[in-house]
Each structure stands twice: as C-alpha cells, then as structure tokens.
Amino acid sequence: MTDSPDAATPPPAGFRCAVAARERDDPQLGSAPQTRRWLLLEHRGPWQIDALAGSGIAAPMLDLLGRTAQAQNARPLLIRRPGRTEAAGRRSWAVAYENGALRWGSWRVDDDLRAAADALADPSPPRVTSTGPLLLACTHGLHDVCCALRGRPVAAALAQEWPESTWECSHVGGDRFAANLVVLPDGIYYGNLDPDSAVETVRAHLRGEVPVQHLRGMTRVPPPAQVAVAAVHRRFGPLSAEDDLINRTLSGEQ
Q1: pLDDT tens for each residue of 29-71
Q2: DSSP sequence for 107-158
Q3: Rounded-to-integer distance, Cα 162 and Cα 203, Å
Q4: Each residue of 166-207: pLDDT tens digit?
Q5: How far apart (Å, rounded) are the C-alpha atoms in residues 151 and 9?
Q6: Rounded mean pLDDT of the chain?
Q7: The listed CATH number (2.30.30.110, 3.40.30.10, 3.90.78.10, 1.10.357.10) that belongs to domain 33-220
Q8: Is 35 strand, coil or helix?
Q9: 3-state class (DSSP) for residue 103
Q10: Residue 214 has what DSSP assignment?
C-alpha cells in the first residue's frame, strides 16, 4: 500500500509522501522489512501496481513462484537496467541467499523460471559466490510516484559509477523514504537518498562501512535488532555489514 497521511482518506492533489515524511521527520531506522531470501526477475517493463502479478507471467508459474517465495520467506522483485532497453530477448533471474551467495540464471519463456523456483527452494545454498554487490534502486512509479521521481535519478547516478551492479527494481516498501536502495546480498536498506548521497553511501558501503545517516535497516533481523545494530555502528563505527561486533550483537553476546 502506498504510504499516505491517513489510510482511510485519499491524499490531497499533489501530495507527495516522501516530501511529507521529510517535513514530519519520520524515523526510518528499523523500517527494513524482514526477508530471508530474494527472487529477482528481469522484466523490462512497464510494471503494474502489483508488479509480479502484472508481469504477464502465466498464472501457473506465478503460483509456483509465489508459493515458493512464501515458503522461503523470500521477497520477489522485478528488476531492469536503468534507461530504455528492448523488451524482447533473454532475461536474467537471480536468487540471493541468507549466507551471502547469489545464483544467476536466464529465462526466455515462463517455463524457464522453474529453475529459479528450484534455486529459491534449495535447502543447501551454494557457498558465497558473489562477485560484487547488487544495487537495487526502487523506481516503481506506478506504485508510488515518489519512487519514480526520486528513484530514477538515483538509479542513473549509480549506473554511471557501477553499471554492472545497478538495477532498477519494483516496490521494496517504505515509499515515504524514497529514494530507496537495497544492497544485496547484504540485505541492507538505505533511504532518503538523492543522487549524490546515494553514490557516497555506496562508496562507503564498498569500503566496508555502513552509513547510519541513510540506514533503514538490515533485512535478516527484526526491527528492534535493526535499531540495536545501528547503535553499534554509531558508537563503534565505521563497521561493515558483517563485522564480528555486529554478529555478536545480533547473537546477544556482550
């Protein structure tokens, strides 16, 4: 659901949830939705409000992917490269696992996505095979216009610096914190970004730092733990997403 000042009444004409959230100074820390795995399907658009349901993938395959994602506590997203691209041709899919591994495949017809469903359900994920992060900038404008207005310039700026790592993605939650960025396979959410702050945030992340100023949270833990982790980053940082101190904090060690 699109963020609005009152879910019972429609927002006034010209209302922008991200502008209103900044005026209210809405706290974003601890707002990353908890997710165990990720299913990424390249779909070059356009995206409907319910991106996956409106993707044109046949109902039986959508059902298989949906059931598998639910069983694995996984978040499905549509992805595409920033800018205009041809809709035809072979497309990519990827699964990001809780151990930091990424598995890639490709698809041309719906039945090819059975391999993606099998990978998502794999009880023994591959060893960490990531060759670099995935930068997913939410640009799902039909879901909320703020995501398009704020997300597309961020995606374009990131693509200038990291063209192979950057993708636009469908709704990731927290429209009022647009522009939103998810870094996989770490599962880190950043929000309230503009092109300059997005580039600086990613540079810091790649140096092994987690910038708390734009941090929304980490998806592998519930909101209270996300806030606790941010406190550790503030007090003892700069720390990486996988720093031993962070892992000890999450495990309850002193």
Answers
A1: 999 999 999 999 999 878 999 999 999 999 999 999 999 999 9
A2: ESSGGGGHHHHHHHH-SSPPPP--SS-EEEEE--TTT-HHHHHHHHHHHHHH
A3: 10
A4: 999 999 998 889 899 999 988 999 999 999 999 999 999 999
A5: 26
A6: 86
A7: 3.40.30.10
A8: coil
A9: strand
A10: G
